[in-house]
Specification:
eight-stranded mixed β-sheet, about 270 residues, elongated, six-stranded mixed β-sheet, alpha/beta
């Protein structure tokens, strides 16, 4: 039986205006009544993800900042991961060669060292305001702990930057194109997949007992971690090929999940696999 479903947010559960559709809420609540547990995995910060969970109306596990932090639905923290300060500075030096907006991500805020037109535009798309802290790089390790660095800009520049970071720091970092204009840089080994693995171990679940759904490259490690994975229609072909199934929406995947469980129950598997 499938006992847990994990969903990505942007491009998956959330609409273009960053809302959860009513039909998605209803489907999640109905599945929860049937014993399915739910979680979210996103590059977003834990505080903003907790707001989304409250809006949906059920307790949810939260894998935030691409797996840097993992919290259970009861609020127990299973993981927190930060870069070493000098690693952040080195990544930022490489990024400074490109005309991109760079954001230093802490647990509870996204920080920019310079405020310009690009930061203003990005601010309009974010549910939590950017924090303008010009001395952020000097305060690393002494007031600021960085778990993720995000660069925003044209995809051709992001791909060039991704190559440069991999060549210079591939032993210390992992990089993901997480949106059409977004490159996430993570500590090595930190991903949605590793975060989900920690959650599954805590809950005592095997890969065949978990479903996940997403739409971007940072969801691929999550697809690899479970037996049942769904890609959204707008996913890049290189993302879709790692998913076992396709789904038009989270509620569509939930419909499949509940049908799967009904068939297992009829076949004589009332508990876990």
């Amino acid at each position: 039986m499938i006992q847990l479903m994990i969903t990505d947010l942007d491009g998956t559960l959330l609409t273009h205006d960053k809302k959860v559709r009513l039909e998605e809420k209803r489907a999640i609540r109905e599945a929860a009544l049937q014993g399915v547990r739910f979680g979210m995995a996103s590059g977003r910060m834990h505080p903003e993800m907790a707001v989304i969970a409250r809006d949906i109306g059920i307790p949810m596990h939260i894998v935030s900042q691409n797996g840097a932090f993992v919290h259970t639905s009861e609020g127990k923290q299973l993981r927190e991961t930060f870069f070493m300060p000098e690693t952040v500075r080195q990544i930022m030096r490489i990024g400074a060669k490109f005309d991109l907006l760079s954001v230093v991500c802490a647990f509870d805020r996204n920080i920019v060292a310079a405020w310009d037109e690009r930061a203003e535009r990005k601010q309009e798309r974010m549910s939590i305001k950017l924090s303008f802290e010009p001395d952020v790089l000097e305060r690393l390790g002494g007031g600021v702990d960085c778990s993720k660095i995000t660069f925003f800009g044209p995809i051709d520049l992001l791909l060039q930057l991704q190559t440069d970071i991999r060549n210079a720091m591939g032993h210390e970092t992992d990089t993901f194109i997480s949106d059409a204009d977004c490159l996430d840089v993570m500590p090595r080994g930190i991903s949605k997949g590793s975060g989900l693995g920690i959650l599954m171990e805590h809950l005592g679940l095997e890969p065949e007992q978990v479903v996940c759904i997403g739409d971007s490259f940072n969801d691929v490690p999550m697809f690899r971690a479970v037996s049942h994975s769904f890609a959204m229609p707008g996913s890049h072909p290189d993302v879709r090929r790692y998913a076992r199934y396709n789904a038009n929406s989270v509620s569509h995947a939930i419909e499949w999940l509940l049908s799967f469980n009904r068939k297992r129950k009829i076949a004589g598997f009332p508990g876990g696999d």
